[in-house]
Structures are given as structure tokens and as C-alpha cells.
Amino acid sequence: MTIVWHCPMTAHDYAAAGRKVVLDRPDCPSCQKAMSFHGFYSRPLRFGGEILRLVVRRARCRACRVTHGLVPDFVGRLRLDAVEVIGDALEQMLTGTTGAVAAAGADVPYTTARDWRRRFLARAKTLTSGFLAAVVALGDLVGGVPVGDANAVLFAIGALAAADRRRSGATGSPWRIANRIVGGELLSANTDPPWIIA
Q1: H/E element, 167
Q2: What are the distances in angstroms from CA 198 to CA 4, 103, 131, 172?
Q3: CA 34, CA 39: separation in Å to the nearest integer?
Q4: To which H or E segment does residue 4 belong?
Q5: Model pLDDT for residues 30-57, shown as the tens digit of each residue
Q6: pLDDT in tens, 154-198
Q7: Nearest-CA neighbor of 68 among 115, 121, 30?
């Protein structure tokens, strides 16, 4: 399993820091007991055509006997590309840019960008309702949601980012905030993302 945490660093700074990244010891998502750090693993991340090697910390819950990877919020579950890269390409495709142009801008194959769009639109209603519920849970009111799956989900992500920034003062792209809220499941096949308000 993974725990997505708010990372104030860029992907390049995180990769350069290696094992020196400092983060708070998390509580277990299942039993809420304090976890202990339990080693590292390495994973690639493609950012604008460049492959970065990330060192990801692991945490272990002694009570549940489960180990979790502690991934920064710019990493999507089972995705090679950074969330900001995926999000920028999605915004372009959902607002009228062709998939080929968006793929070229992200420096990924056209088929990759097409898969992002297909997966995102397949989950648009679920993501929209979940993000709008998270906005309300963060204490904001929502009104004037646009019609259409693509417009509604982009509106919901923007509203979520604004609400999160007002509540926590956290910075980062709206896509990183959205990815953190859904526990890295922004583009996964999972139809029930673990909505996390942290």
C-alpha cells in the first residue's frame, strides 16, 4: 500500500535529495497507531522526457504487520509520469487541444496521453462528486458547477485546490493536491478512491 504525503519539494529536488528527504513518521491508515520507518525502495519518474530516480521511504505498522510506501504527492500510483505532467496534458486535451499536441508538449507517446484522457474521463463523475464533497468537508461552499464531465471535474479540482490552500496554506499544483486527496489513485482503475482529507 501507499501513503501519499504533501511534499514541498519539486520532483528534481526530491530526486537529488535521495535518502536525505526528511518527513514525519506517519500513523497507520488502518489502526491509527504510530508507524516506524522500514527501509527504502527506488522507482523511476518521468518528468518532461527526463527520467528521475526517486528513493521512496517505507513505513511499517507493527500492529497491522503492513508496510506502506511513503510517496510524495507528485507521484501517481502505477504511473511513470509526474502528476503535474499528466494534469497539464489532461487540461489541454479537455479544453480543446488535440491529443497529439498535448502528448508532444508532455514529451510522451500519443498513446500514453490518449490513455490518460480515456481513464480520467471514465472516472470523471466519481472524481467530481468526491472532490466537491472534499471541498465541502474543507469548509467551502460550492456553486455554479459547469455542465459536462470534463468541465465539471476541472472545476472541482480547481475548487478543491483553492479550499485546501485556504485551509492548510499548502502550495503546489492543483493536480498534486487532487492526487494527495485521492491517495495517488487519480488515474487508477480503482472506482472507489480512498478520499483523504488531511
Answers
A1: helix 149-168
A2: 10, 32, 13, 15
A3: 16
A4: strand 2-5
A5: 899 999 999 999 999 999 889 999 999 9
A6: 999 999 999 988 888 777 789 999 998 888 888 876 545 555 544
A7: 30
